[in-house]
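agent: user wants the full assembly modeled, not chains individually. Plan: 1) parse entity lines 2) check alphabet per entity 3) run joint structure prediction 4) return tokens. Steps 1-2 passed, two entities, 444 residues total. Proceeding.
--- entities ---
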Amino acid sequence: MSGLETFMQAPNATIEVADDFDEINRLFRERGWSDGLPIVPPTAVRVEKMLTYCDRPWHEAICKVGPRYGEATPARIAVSAVMAGAEPRYFPLIMLAIEAMCEKRFNLYGVQATTHNAAPLMIFNGPIAREVGINSGHNAFGPGAQANATIGRAVRLALVNIGGAFPTVGDMCTYGSPAKYTYCAAENEAASPWEPLHVERGYNIDDTTVTVVGAECPHNINDHESITAEGVLQTIAGSMGVAGVNDVYHDVCEPVVLIGIEHAKTIADGGFTKAAVKKFIVDNANLPMKKFSRENIERRLRFWFPGKYENAGPETLVPMIQRPEDLIVVVIGGAGKHSAFIPTFGATLSVTRALKCADGKPARSVEEFGRG
Amino acid sequence: MSELRKRGVITAVICSEPFKKLGTAQSRVFGTPNLPLIMIPHPLGGLSIEQVGARAEIAIPQILAVIREQLK
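--- prediction returned ---
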């Protein structure tokens, strides 16, 4: 007996459509169930195959996805994963990412519905990210790796079809973002001179985690000339002082600095720990008051930071981030002297969550989920 | 707001035109599909105090209508 039988008996759980790829895709686009790209038809057979890598009850919600607060059951998530073209062994990581972004501190409702161009950035750490082939090197946020492309896309389709993030209804983004198609990579732990993000956040090196951040696309930071740690860090910090990011108006925010592996080596060779990197950047990522509009000074900076800028002059430096520990630093990418600044929605905090089996033990291999 | 409405409190949500679909959808999500939306012109950001006052002028008759309707 099919494990999907209960699911399929629910009202409107299935639709009948001609067995024709183009016709199915036309229907999905018309109903707003697609991201605009062709989808893999989520037949019962494919959905059940996806669920061979799920060790939880298929019909019990693991969380509710705003703004519609639809119940995210493994069966429903599997539909999005099939549509996205994901491999079944990616499925535990897709579920993990969705659970993480539904934690209260992430404010998924805000990230989904805002006019800001935020999308949930997913940074994976640990052995299972490597096992399933999430790209952490060259072009990690670009095309080419099936895991990066389809894990992120599966999450996006779930955010739309379970969470109701339909454009102009549940997603009011002014101009959208390419990161809303997929925004997924792993940290390049092998090439990083520092402890990886999940270890920094208290997890074991052998744990597999996702860290989700309600973020803009990466803003590139080019530095081909600096040969000292301070030089590279000054370029990074100098690239972050901008007047129009949300983070500058929030007391607590967690933007990301993505450091390319060549920049990371130069910085680490100069004796900088990760904590020292954060302190240098936060101390130096700022913008003179004169770069802000008069209205923003009065109605934003002085409103959100009462007393702080009352007597500030045009040269007073406004910090982009308030505390070094709030900055997320990760090493991602391949060869090349580029890093990136990734601002956030502001009214969101990152969440790191570890991949565990149904018995609560940390998963060490994706095959622990396989029923295949 | 939906929770207040369920408890019988007179409620409405003030909304600008581009957000009407979101407001309507959220009203349904939270189990109060008839939650009144008070419609005012967009935008809301960057308004002078006079412009805020003008939007209040547009909102007030709608708010009074909601109150009258719910007091019936």
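agent: reporting back. Strands of chain B lie at 13-16, 37-40. Chain B touches chain A at residues 18-19, 21-22, 25-26, 29, 46 (CB under 8 Å).
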